[in-house]
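Q: Predict the assembly, please.
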Amino acid sequence: MTTVAAYAAPAAKAPLERTTIERRAVGEFDVLIDIEFAGICHSDIHQAREGWGTAIFPMVPGHEIAGVVSEVGPGVTKYAVGDRVGVGCMVDSCRECDNCKAGLQQYCTGSGGPTWTYNAVGKDGQPTYGGYAQKIVVDENYVVRIPDGLSLDVAAPLLCAGITTYSPLKHWNAGPGKKVAVVGLGGLGHMGVKIAAALGAEVTVLSQSLRKKDDGLKLGATHYRATSDPKTFEELKGTFDIILNTVSAPLDFDAYLSLLRTDGAMVNVGIPEEPVHILLSSVFGNRRSLSSSGIGGIPETQEMLDFCAEHQLGAEIELIGADRINEAYERVVNSDVRYRFVIDTATI
Ligand code: NAP
Ligand code: ZN
Ligand code: ZN
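A: Predicted assembly structure:
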């Protein structure tokens, strides 16, 4: 066991504070990672505030982890000391179900499903603690390599925001000739715009206002429309092949579905805390689909990192010291983030 400095929420809705946690001893197939950067995902806030239901405390959030391997177990073959690596939302899964065998570990159907990086219980029966910490021990099969072309600070958010947008964009065939709308220009949304544009799609941002329009166009969007303007919904009716909804709050789904063309798909990656309602008439008229997607499997996470390195797609970040985590949470909740807060874990 190693004692490690971390930032934790001691209870639901309580501010995060500095603490120490124990990391397990490095096992046969484990790597010890010196964490350098950890992104702040809106999912951290949903969980630390119990917006999605009862959670485990103290909670060390953080599933956008980038660092350097500092020790490996005797059975480790994929990584060596000094390698630049990342860890995302999962640190284990059953490895035997059809989904795990297909590399879709995020949809593991084994008992208990995937072991999430934090707010979960590991196979050793101990609570898992995430990336707002100086070190983490992870089985090598749930670690990915950060290509040399990406610096660790801008790579960290790719471990969740990057893969969560890359996976559905690939699955629903975003590419040349396809019109993609990205709803919400936050952490996920800005990576969605970059990745969809790099895949060759024509991208429209649908944001609450035009306040971030210049940024959206620089990130790769061709069009930028405000959803507060009713004309947006009139003029874009029947336009999109894919709508990638990254919004953390419930929307008027019927209004957004009307923007899909025949056979278009609206993919929801945002996970609001409240139930949402739709009219089935919003989908049957044009054989539209309403779907969702959860992060991505380990092989696809590696593929995404390689793609992002090839296209030089790091996240746009605001680097903060750990003493600003609580302030950053407030700003994320208020949609005041351009476009991902990343914690310099040396400040923990
Ligand atoms: P974020 O940085 O806060 O971005 C969300 C964006 O949604 C905001 O920047 C804002 O964009 C828009 N928005 C916020 N409140 C809104 C409201 N009431 N009405 C309309 N638009 C609103 O959050 P994030 O880290 O990208 O995460 C987004 C959501 O995805 C969260 O619910 C998170 O839990 C979820 N998530 C899901 C997965 C998955 O695997 N499916 C993975 C990671 C995160 P504008 O200012 O441009 O309107
Ligand atoms: Zn996340
Ligand atoms: Zn499984």
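The chain has a mean pLDDT of 97. The pocket of zinc ion (ligand 2) is lined by residues 41, 43, 63, 160 (CB under 6 Å).
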